[in-house]
Amino acid sequence: MHTCRICTTELKDIIDYGKMPIANGFVKNSEDREFTFNLAAYFCPQCLMVQIGDTVEPEKMFHDHYQFVSSTSAAMAVHFEEQANEIIDSLKEKSDPFVVELGSNDGIMLKHIAKKGIRHLGIEPSRNVAEMSEKIGVHVLKEFFNQKTAKNILDTNGPADVICGSNVTCHIEDLNSVAEGIKILLKDDGVWFFEDPYIYDIVQKSSFDQMYDEHIFYFSGLSVQNLAKKHGMQLVDMRHQDVHGGSMRYYIKKGSKNNISASVHEYISKEKALNLDIQDGYLKFRDNVNNVCFDLKKLLTKLQTEGKSVAAYGATSKSTTLLTYAKIGHDLIDYISDNTPSKIGLLTPGTHIPVKSHDKFIKNPPDYTVLLAWNHKREILKNENEYRKNGGKFITFFPKVTIE
Fold first, then answer.
1. pLDDT digits (tens, 9 = 90+) for 113-136
2. What is the number of helices (H) and of strands (E) in the chain?
3. Degrees to nearest 5, angle at CA 202 with 240 and 87
4. CA–CA separation, 128 vs 40, rounded Å?
5. What is the CATH number of the domain that holds 315?
6. Residues in the chain, pLDDT under 50
7. Residues 6 or more apart from 70 whose CB is under 8 A from it?
8. Geometric angle at alpha carbon 283, from 2 and 221, rounded to 5°
9. Given this model, what pLDDT does residue 126 score?
10. CATH (domain of 108)
């Protein structure tokens, strides 16, 4: 039995994916011993938070050899520059403002804040990517954020006008401690915002690959509203983002008498219409997940029997869930093309598909390519227009398996 990390209520089942390796745990050879855990998603009927049951120690996921580097995507670079500009605009009337980013990665967002001379601090426990950001002038604290960290930052820097995080809040198991830390560090008129994959989009698209070890929570306006209220704060705005296959940016302020934007009411109404406030809303999602896996493996097996060459595009963290749960390995996919230097030459976690440089994809293009980095579809199809002109085809799988 699992209980909710937010409110301790007994959780209800959504889907059990079985044994799963660490999503970013790429290995050097197939004989390497791999850590596994049971990956299953649950729903809290009390605070409406979706979350996984068993978790992995943070040190096993976020360490000195962390494989995810934000700046490898041109689309994400644009996204984070726009986010930085939003923050900069919001601080124009502030005297000596201070910005804190949780999970600052390689400084892709904070570097724009730093260039404006605005006081800032990134919190990044993965030392290798934190050091990348230091090289471009970003101030970083190489620790995990909690109440103790918040007090230390407050004593050294004073309160923060903005505390933000992108694709990091969902990673934090003790979210109550983080929320309390934010209350400590945030100015009374400050704003905390974070963006993460939106459970509404995940359910609508059946994009279950968003569920893996790093992603402990899957937020909705409903659940964030309850989380904020529990800690004496209030959800005041919601802004949808196209990144990562559909993300939501949640804006939270202290107190309970803030102005609430119309978008909060609109999105929460949509969530209720999709039945995301009850367990039944997630049961069709489970059926759709199984259909996607069956159809994708069936297609790849058919292409293999026809003698077609098949590769994949993007050695993403989330593809670990798809490949493992669907039981798709090196027998059905020759290799995965990727442009992350630290991943090239390694094998995917669990399924052991080789990761090759993009040069191989260009020099010897496959007949079909499974688009694992589907959330960057627009950018990838534009970049690989020549491949498609020459007869190459991409395979996508959300909300259903499609050849294009």
1. 999 999 999 999 888 888 999 999
2. 14, 17
3. 25
4. 30
5. 3.40.50.720
6. 63, 66-67
7. 76, 77, 80, 105, 106, 108
8. 75
9. 84
10. 3.40.50.150
Domain boundary among 147, 169, 195: 195
Amino acid at site 86: E
- How far apart, in whole angstroms, are the C-alpha atoms of residue 91 and residue 85? 10
pLDDT tens across 355-394, in order? 999 999 999 999 999 999 999 899 899 999 999 999 999 9
pTM check: above 0.85: yes
Alpha-carbon span 270 to 339, nearest angstrom: 37
Of 161, 195, 229, the position where a domain reaches its end is: 195
- What residues make up the domain containing 110? 55-64+75-195
Which tokens is 46 given? 């009390």
Give the model's pLDDT for residue 72.
62
- For residue 386, give the amino acid letter: E
Residue 240: phi and psi, rounded to 5, are -70, 140
* Bridge partner list, 371: 313
DSSP, collapsed to helix, strand or coil, labels residue 260 as: coil
Average pLDDT, the chain: 95
Residue 217 and residue 277: Cα distance in Å, rounded? Answer: 15
Locus of tokens 């919601």 = 238
Determine the pLDDT at residue 63. Answer: 46
Lookup: tokens for 304: 């293999």
DSSP, residue by residue, 351-381: T-PBEEEHHHHHHS--SEEEETTGGGHHHHH
